[in-house]
Structures are given as structure tokens and as C-alpha cells.
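Title: Prediction job returns without error message
Component: structure pipeline
Severity: low
Priority: P3
Assignee: unassigned

Description:
Job completed but the reporter wants confirmation the result is attached to the right record. Sequence as submitted:
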Amino acid sequence: MGENCDVDCSLSISTKEMVAMELGQIVETSCHDDDGRVKRTGTVLTASAHIITAVIGSGVLSLAWAIGQLGWVAGPFVMVLFSFVIYYTSTLLSDCYRSGDPVSGKRNYTYMDAVRSNLGGAKVKMCGIVQYVNLFGVAVGYTIAASISMIAIEKSNCFHSKGHDNPCHVSGNAYMIGFGVAEVLLSQIPDFDQISWLSIVAAIMSFTYSSIGLLLGILQVAGNGEIKGSLTGIAVGKITHTQKIFRSLQAFGDIAFAYSYSIILIEIQDTVRSPPSEAKTMKKATMVSVAVTTVFYMACGCMGYAAFGDKSPGNLLTGFGFYNPYWLLDIANIAIVIHLVGAYQVFCQPLFAFIEKWVSQQWPKSGFAMKEIEIPISFRRRNSTNINLFRLIWRTAFVILTTIISMLLPFFNDVVGLLGALSFWPLTVYFPVEMYIASMKIPKWTTRWVGLQILSLSCFVISVSAATGSIAGVLADLKVYRPFKTNY
């Protein structure tokens, strides 16, 4: 007899689990997967879309500068190299979605779950520290990037009305505070699943400003009548030997930041249906998305470098290599701000959830931590929202802290490079490699084990080098920066 799917799907998860307990197992039905959750429906297409949406973001804006430091030979080569490394380590990570059997093994719903299942012990804590510190850093980076785009809008209009020779100095403090206020309000949205609309808007905006940057680069090259740049990048003489080394290393960090998405790969894989196995689908999606992203990045980065050569700005749309059409620059920077407003929440919600879950476990009977207060939001309709005092105070304090740090360190390019360097090796290479070795039970000192360890060690050296270059850039900026007072 066939199941009545409509009736079955209307059952709650808890009811399904009760049935499973009576049978001694979780029963897979036509409407529920083997873990009792509603059937996942994701495909290669949807998984690819999620990855591309996550990857293509503000990191694309620094790629022209990164290629400018490395030149026409090393720049594109490093970008392609990173794409291959990230593709390969992502395929390793996708094999860690299920523990044991790749078809029927226990599912790992998050990156941390995968680390816990495959490695356990101190490595789980290490992963958590790296992951959540990185999320905090991303919040700071996005606050800086959003304020710089708002500054660029004001300066663009100033240049249009007063001429390009006018300094048009603007303070970024007010814009950072404004961005922080918006994030305080949005951060009160309780759960990650309630901000899907924000993610969709942010994704549309990221493609909008990236495409405008590419278009302006093409127009600039056409206007110049030549392709600028050199085989080895900006030459020693225009900058010192030390600056050349540190800037080249920082460029590695910028490119790594632009490609990073491993931290959410398992979460995306958890949306994919089976059969075929989730790993097979995810590997295809990874190949498609990394290929599309690399082509797009190469076009944006190379076209920006071709347009400006050694003068490629650290942020393609706010560094004022372009001045006109000013209204198109304004549209692009508005799109950046809208995207970053949403992206801030997407990246911070997992951190919010982690802290609030820990507090609820520590003080389960605390009214301050647990009580939800219903607040009406409409007089005409019976609509309301819930406010939790701990959530209100802690999330507000978090946003205030990221805003203050952003005002102290408003260096977009250096911060982007540092974030990319710090997250690339541990989250994109080390943990995927170690989990794969553990899950596949690869013996030590075999050819494959040695090859994976060499890959991990090589990427560790790259991460440390890139972090060194970015830190040097921050220190150089601090020499001429006055906190809360420097104008752009």
C-alpha cells in the first residue's frame, strides 16, 4: 500500500521520532529522510547557486589591486591555483558530511558537527575558536567596507559638483555608527531561518556591484586604448623591496578571502536530496560554482588591472580609479551597502546562536536569559514579535563592539587580507584534510597521506606569509592614522 504523503508530511518531527522510537529506528518515508527530517530537495543547481552567492561578495573588489601587486603572470596563476586547492579540499570536506557509510551513515548538519564526529577532542574546541573569531572578524570587515562605500557615494557626488581636484574629505565615523544602528535592529531577528529574504536581496546586490565593476573596467580599457600593467606587477622603485614583498604576500590573503566558503559547505550540503549520495551532488556543484566564480573573478580582477595598472585601487569601486558616470558608481556602492547589511547578519547569526545556546544550557531557569516578551508590532492586526532581554543586550553589545573596532581600524584592504589569511589554512585546508584522513582511515606514511600533509603544510606557509603581509600593511597604516579623526 502507498503512503498518504499529504497526511504523512503534516506530521511533526517529534511525532515521527516517537514512531521511530517504537520501531527502534528512524524510518525513511516518501516525505521524510532517514533522519526523520522533511525530505531535502536540493540539487546540483541549487547547491551551486548557494555556493556562488556565498563566494561572490566584497572580496571581488580587492582583486584588481591583488593582481597589480603580483603582475600579469603570477596574479592569474595564483588565482587559478587557489581555485584548484579550494575545489580539491571542498571535495574532501563533502565526503565528511556522513560519518561511516557515505550513503546511510550519520549526517553531520554543520561544519562543527563534522569536526566533532571525525576528529573530536581538543580539535573541536580549536575549530570553534577559529570559526567564531573569523565570524567576528568578518563583522568588523563588513562594517568597514560598508562605511567606505557610503563615503564613496558622498565623495562621488562632491567630485561631480566641485571637480576631481577638490579633496572632498569625508569622515567615516558617522557612517559606521549608522551601519551599526541598522545591524542592532536587524540582529534582533531571533533565528537564521528567518533571514532568508535578506540573503536573497544580498545575493542580488553582490552580482549587481560586481557586474558594474566589470563593466566600468571594460569601458576604462576601451577609453585608454591600451591594456595597462606589467608581467611582474608594480615595480621596485615605485615602492621599496620590503613593500613589494609585503604587498605581494597580502595579495595572497585578498585572493584567499575572495574564495572562502568552506565554513558553510556542510550546511549547504545538508539541503541536498538523495539519491544520488549528497557527496556526489556536492562535488558536481563545487566544480560548477568554483569554475563560474573563477571566470568571474578573473574577468573583474584582470579587467580592473588592465584599466589602472600600477594605480589599481585597493577597493575597485571606492578607490576612485573611476569617477564617471558618477550615478552608476553611486548605484554600485548602494548595492554594496545593502549587500553588506544582509551579509553581516548571515555570518553573525551562527555566532549569536552558539552563545545563546550555551547561555540557555548554563542557566535554563533564568528569566533574563530564557523569557520571551511578546511585543505588538501593529495596532490594526494581531501581529507581534518576541523580545528576549539577554538577546537584546548581548547582540546590541556585540554590534557596538564591532563598530568601535571598525572605527579604530578602518583599513579595508589590509583587514580583508588578514581575514583571508587567518581563515584559509585552518578552515579550508587543515580540518577538511584531517577529517578526510580520519573518515577514510588513510594509514600514516602512505603516498596519499604524505601528499595530503604536504598540501596542508604548503597552505599553512601561504597563510602565515599572507597574514604577515597584511599585518605589515595595518602597521604601516597605523603610523599615519589618528583614531576617530582621520578623514578619507
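Comment from assignee: result matches the submitted record. The two ends are 72 Å apart (CA to CA).
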